[in-house]
Amino acid sequence: MDIPSRSSHLKIFPHFRSSAQLVSTHVSFVFRKKPRDKNLKLIARALSEWHEYEDAVKRKDLARALRFLRSLEADKNKDNSAEKINGFLSSGPTQSGVSDLGLFDGSQRDWEVLDTCLNADDMRLVGSAYGFLKNRGFLPSFGKFSNIVLEGPRDMSPTVFKSSTGLEVSKFAPKKWGLSGSSRFALVAFLGGVSFLLSQGIDIRTNLAATLGLALMDSIFLGGTCLAQISSLWPPYKRRILIHEAGHLLVAYLMGCPIRGVILDPIIAMQMGIQGQAGTQFWDEKMSNELAEGRLSGTTFDRYCMVLFAGIAAEALVYGEAEGGENDENLFRSICVLMKPPLSVAQMSNQARWSVMQSYNLLKWQRHAHRAAVKALESGCSLSVVIRRIEEAMSSGQAGIGC
Length: 403
Known about the structure:
With 403 residues, the chain is an all-alpha fold. It has three domains: 42-74 and 106-139, no CATH class; 148-172 and 234-400, Methane Monooxygenase Hydroxylase, Chain G, domain 1, CATH 1.20.58; 182-232, no CATH class. Helix content is 64%, strand content 2%. A two-stranded antiparallel sheet has the order 1-2.
């Protein structure tokens, strides 16, 4: 809006007619006093409200934390509109007084709203949190590669797969414990130790039977949680889990699927109903809407499969082969069977190879971001920090530092 003309200005302030210089002096004096008092009140109120936000983050209350950030954004927009309307008469000392606290205007604490997502029951609210931060410019890489599912050939034979990834298809197959990989040597060593003790006259058959019985009960009733908890104490095994879950997390993030949380503790995973030793919970809004309508488009299914097989792809990228991911494969098969019409065995194999290949290449292109995610998870960082490290690595092309 244009600044009022001199005549209209004099009508508003008739007692300033004596001189233009006097008008300027009095205007400066009038607007020097009140904004200071107003600033103090706003700063006090901002501090009080910010404590409420911190409490919401601490209590993992996503709805309350997101409501605060939205109200803050609305107040900013209102202040900006007022400045434009009033022109030079409200040139911004009020807002700058609050900004000097370092609480607003690109505050790093805005990221902390992601740490409240894990306890959220409404996944749409989780999606709203990611959408809010993306609109604020915090998540430029979120959904950056969502159209990748439309690229590349659909017929993924083992030969084409090897030419694209450089690895045999068998390298991406989850391994059974005791039959492949390092677990095979552990099983041989265990059986050798038992034989040696028996040859020395030490009968451990009763203890061995009890141990195997407990392991069987753990597998049936707890999904192998106790064994996984013990195994997670072994550093190489723990790191492989981190690499696997970082693969899920990064691909889901780059494909635009909001991540609710990453659970690395087997007991917590069991309490949350997650199959396996760990899990990354993500949400695909399009898939959710389509399933509610009783349909599932090819593009949506492709994106979901890419995220689902990203853990296997990450292990193969780092180690040259994958060991985990059996639960991911089981979930994939269960979805394929529920489709109308259900996929045949040949179609499932082709879809799995195509999805793994896409995830493998995406992680290979963004290897620095995957390393940054692994480092952050290994350091015990919260989800918000992990996402920030990914964004920093994406922008700089290098792996991020710790928490």
